[in-house]
Design goal:
Helix content of chain B: over 70%
Number of helices of chain A: 1
Strand content of chain B: under 5%
Shape of chain A: rod-shaped
Order of helices and strands of chain A: H
Structural class of chain B: mainly alpha
Largest sheet of chain B: none
Helix content of chain A: over 70%
Distance between the termini of chain A: 48 Å
Oligomer: heterodimer
Structural class of chain A: mainly alpha
Strand content of chain A: under 5%
Order of helices and strands of chain B: HHHHHHHHHHHHHHHHHHHH
C-alpha cells in the first residue's frame, strides 16, 4: 500500500466515521430528551 | 360507508433510520462497491464517489424523505398519490406507478438470490461448502444449486426451491406483521447482527497471515493497496465518474420508491433532515469501511495481483458465491466464517427485500382499504407467481431483463422525475420548507440551490448517458443470444402487462378517491 493509498483510505474512513458519529450522537441525544 | 384503515406509524426514530439503512445496505455494499472502486482508479474513485454522494445521493435522500412524509400526512403511502399531490397534472399519478412497479420487479429476482444466501449459509454450517476442493468445483456447485446443470452436488433444483419458499414466506410474514411489529422489529435485530457479523469478518481478514509462505507479497495489506492506491489517470475518464455516480445512486436505495413509503409512516412533526443523513451515513459505513475491507483484500491475498484482475472483473456473483467460499475453505474455522459471510449477506438482503414489497402492499392496503394481512397475502401470492420465471428460466436472460428494467432503468428514471417534480413542480421554496419542518439539523443553504439545479441536471446527464451507452443496446436486445430471445421478449411482455395493470389500478383508485373533482 502506497502513501497515497493510506491517505485516501484515512480521509475516506475519517469522513464517514465523523459523519456517522455526528449523526448518531444527535439522534440518540434527541431520543433521551424525548424520554 | 367503510371505515378508513388507521394510518400506520413507526414506533421510534431509530426504528425508521435502521429500516431505511436496512433497505439501502444490501449485496451491493459488500460486493459491488469494492469491485467498482478497484476497477475505476482505486482511491481516486473516492473523489467522484464523495462528490456524487453530496450532490446526488444525499439530496435525493432528503427529497424522498420529504415527499414521503408529505404524502403520508395527506393519506398517501405510495408514489401515485404523492406525485398527484406534488403536481396538479393527470400524468403525475401515472409517473408514480414506477414507484410501485420498480420495487416489485426487483423483488421478483432479488428474493430468489436472497434465498441462495440462506441456502449457502446452511451449506456453510453443515461443512458441505468448505469440503469443496477447488474453484472449478465451487462453480459447479453453484451451477447445480441453481438448476443449470445436474452433477454430483445436486440432482435437481429442489433444495434451492425449498430455500426460496422459506425466504419468501419469511418476507411475507414480516410484512404481514405490519410496520412496527414486522419491519421495525426485524431491522432493530437484523441490522446490529449484520454489523456484528461484518466486524468479526473484518477482524478475521486484517489478522490473516499471508496464505502462501513462498509468496509473502500476497498479503492483506497489499490487498488494501489494490483497493486504495489511487490511479489519478482514471479521473480523466468519464467512465469513472459515471461508475461513481451510479454506485452512489444504487447503494442508497434512492429512485426506487421504498423510502417514499417508509417515510410516509412518519408524523408531520417528525424530523427527516437528520434521520435521512443518519441512514445514508450508516449505509456508507457498511459500504466503504466494512464492504471495502473484506472481499478485495481477502481475494488479493489468495489469488495474487495477476489473477485478482480476473476475479474482480468476473462479476459480483462469481466473487460472492465462488471465490469467497473457496477462500473460506482454505482458512481455519472456515465453515464458521463462511456462514458469517453468507448470513450477513442474507440479513442485508432480507432487510432490503421487505422494503421492496412494502410499496405494493401499502398501495393495496391504503388505496383500496384492504386489511394489511389480506394485502400482504394478496401481494405475496402475486409475487410468488411472478418469481417462477426468474427461477426456472434463470439461464435464459430473464433475471438480466428484470434487473435492467426494474433495477436500473426505472431507478434512474424515477429518481430524475421525483427530483424535478419536487423542486420544480412543487416549488423549491415549499420543498425547502418541507425538508426543514421539524428538522433537528440545519441543512446548509447551498443545498437549496443544489436540490433545485445541480441534482436534477446531474440526474438528467446520468439518465441520458446511460441510455446512449447501455440502454439502447439492451432495449434493442442486441446482446441477447438467439435461443434466449423468446424468454427475454416474453419477460418484456409480462412486465408491460404488470405496468399496465398497476396503471389501471391507479386510475381506479384515483376515480374512487377524487370523484366529483374533489382533488385537493
Amino acid at each position: 500500500m502506497t502513501l497515497f493509498g493510506w491517505l485516501f483510505m484515512a480521509i475516506s474512513w475519517t469522513l464517514i466515521i465523523a459523519l456517522l458519529v455526528f449523526c448518531f450522537s444527535r439522534v440518540l441525544r434527541e431520543k433521551e430528551e424525548d424520554l | 360507508m367503510v371505515e378508513k384503515l388507521k394510518h400506520e406509524t413507526w414506533g421510534s426514530k431509530l426504528g425508521i433510520i435502521l429500516a431505511v439503512a436496512g433497505s439501502a445496505v444490501g449485496l451491493g455494499n459488500f460486493l459491488r462497491f469494492p469491485v467498482q472502486a478497484a476497477n475505476n482508479g482505486g482511491g481516486a474513485f473516492m473523489i467522484p464517489y464523495f462528490i456524487s454522494l453530496f450532490l446526488i445521493g444525499i439530496p435525493l435522500m432528503w427529497i424522498e424523505w420529504a415527499i414521503g412524509r408529505y404524502g403520508g400526512v395527506h393519506g398517501h403511502t405510495t408514489a401515485p398519490g404523492m406525485f398527484h399531490r406534488l403536481w396538479d397534472n393527470r400524468l403525475g399519478k401515472y409517473f408514480g406507478v414506477i414507484g410501485i412497479f420498480g420495487p416489485m420487479v426487483i423483488f421478483i429476482y432479488y428474493v430468489y438470490i436472497e434465498s441462495w444466501l440462506l441456502g449457502y449459509s446452511f451449506y456453510s454450517l453443515t461443512g458441505v461448502l468448505t469440503d469443496i476442493p477447488d474453484k472449478e468445483s465451487m462453480a459447479k456447485f453453484l451451477s447445480a444449486y441453481q438448476g443449470q446443470e445436474i452433477n454430483a452436488y445436486f440432482q435437481s433444483p429442489a433444495p434451492a426451491y425449498l430455500f426460496f419458499l422459506i425466504t419468501i414466506l419469511l418476507n411475507i410474514t414480516i410484512i404481514f406483521r405490519g410496520v412496527r411489529r414486522g419491519i421495525e422489529s426485524l431491522c432493530k435485530i437484523a441490522m446490529p447482527m449484520l454489523f456484528l457479523a461484518a466486524v468479526i469478518l473484518v477482524i478475521r481478514v486484517v489478522t490473516l497471515d499471508p496464505p502462501y509462505p513462498d509468496k509473502p507479497d500476497w498479503n492483506i495489506l497489499n490487498g488494501f493497496g489494490y483497493l486504495w492506491n489511487p490511479d489519478f489517470s482514471a479521473l480523466l475518464n468519464a467512465k469513472t465518474w459515471l461508475a461513481a455516480a451510479g454506485q452512489v445512486f444504487f447503494t442508497l436505495s434512492v429512485g426506487i420508491g421504498v423510502i417514499l413509503t417508509y417515510a410516509s409512516y412518519l408524523k408531520r412533526g417528525d424530523d427527516i433532515a437528520l434521520s435521512g443523513l443518519t441512514a445514508a451515513s450508516t449505509n456508507e459505513f457498511a459500504e466503504v469501511i466494512l464492504g471495502g475491507s473484506i472481499v478485495i483484500p481477502l481475494a488479493f491475498a489468495f489469488f495474487g495481483p495477476v489473477d485478482m484482475k480476473e476475479v474482480a472483473s468476473s462479476g459480483a456473483f462469481n466473487l460472492g458465491f465462488v471465490s469467497m467460499p473457496f477462500i473460506f475453505s482454505k482458512i481455519s474455522l472456515g465453515a464458521l466464517f463462511s456462514f458469517l459471510w453468507f448470513f450477513l449477506l442474507f440479513l442485508a438482503g432480507l432487510t432490503s427485500s421487505i422494503s421492496l414489497i412494502e410499496p405494493a402492499v401499502a398501495f393495496v392496503r391504503d388505496d383500496f382499504q384492504v386489511d394489511r394481512k389480506k394485502a400482504a397475502a394478496i401481494m405475496g401470492a402475486i409475487a410468488f407467481i411472478l418469481c417462477q420465471p426468474a427461477i426456472f428460466f434463470l439461464g435464459h436472460g430473464v433475471v438480466d431483463e428484470l434487473d435492467f428494467w426494474g433495477g436500473t432503468f426505472c431507478l434512474v428514471l424515477f429518481g430524475t422525475i421525483e427530483a424535478i417534480l419536487f423542486s420544480w413542480a412543487f416549488g423549491i421554496d415549499r420543498a425547502w420548507e418541507e425538508i426543514h419542518h421539524g428538522a433537528q439539523l440545519n441543512i446548509p443553504k447551498i443545498y437549496k440551490w443544489i436540490i433545485k439545479y445541480v441534482t436534477p441536471v446531474l440526474l438528467l446527464i446520468i439518465l441520458g448517458t446511460w441510455i446512449v451507452q447501455q440502454g439502447l443496446s439492451t432495449i434493442m436486445m442486441e446482446n441477447v443470444k438467439d435461443g434466449d430471445a423468446p424468454y427475454v421478449f416474453g419477460t418484456r411482455i409480462g412486465l408491460m402487462a404488470l405496468f399496465v395493470a398497476l396503471a389501471v389500478l391507479v386510475r381506479i383508485w384515483h376515480k374512487k378517491t377524487f370523484k366529483g373533482g374533489a382533488d385537493k
